[in-house]
Amino acid sequence: MLAKGRKVSGRGEAVAANYAFGPLEDDVIAKAFLQELNTFEIPHLKSKALVDANLREKHNFDELREEINRQIVQAKIDIEMLKKQLQESRSKDGIRRSEIAALDVENTATSRTLELRKKQFALLLHVVDELQNTIEEEQRSLIEEKEQKTAGGSEPMHVD
């Protein structure tokens, strides 16, 4: 055990302090600790950046979904309008039958396209959600590893 004297400011009297290590050893230990801390901090910051980016991306996808839903509503209105036009065309003239067939094809294609887009968007949101869950699990795992290492290395030191 090393005993060192130090001055208490203002009083001028020496006080003995007990150190387990000398100042040089303390610096080495502190630097090693900071270096080890950095090995955990950088991946954590990267993960946090990924999470933030994913949250922004999810927000963008949510906005995109809202826009697609608005387009779907508008497309349904358009479809209903096309149906009415189709009925009017049938009652007016037999010449317009080819136009009616074209509108039916367009209506079917639009409905299929809308259904396809709904499925694609649902799949995309599912993938983003799974990616978010994976990142969160990795972060928890990193935190648990850090806590285990910290718990393992923080046993009290015995000084003789």
Descriptive account of the structure:
By secondary structure, the chain is mainly alpha-helical. The protein has helices spanning about 25-90, 95-150; strands at about 1-5, 15-20. The chain has one domain. Strands 1-2 form a two-stranded antiparallel ribbon. Helix 1 packs antiparallel against helix 2. The chain is rod-shaped. The N and C termini lie close together (about 5 Å).
Summarize the structure.
The protein is mainly α and about 160 residues long. The chain has helices spanning about 25-90, 95-150; strands at about 1-5, 15-20.
Output the keywords.
2 helices, coiled coil, 2 strands, mainly alpha, 8% strand, disordered N terminus, two-stranded antiparallel ribbon, 160 residues
Q: Please state the structural category.
A: mainly alpha
Morphology call:
rod-shaped
How many strands?
2
Largest sheet: 2 strands, antiparallel
Order of helices and strands: EEHH
The share of residues in helices is over 70%
Distance between the termini: 6 Å
Amount of beta strand: 5-15%
**Can you list the strand order of the major beta sheet?**
1-2
Count of helical segments? 2
Rg, nearest Å: 35 Å
Whole-number total of structural domains: 1
InterPro entries: THOC7/Mft1 (IPR008501)
Region (Disordered): 139-160
Coiled coil: 65-92
Subcellular location: Nucleus
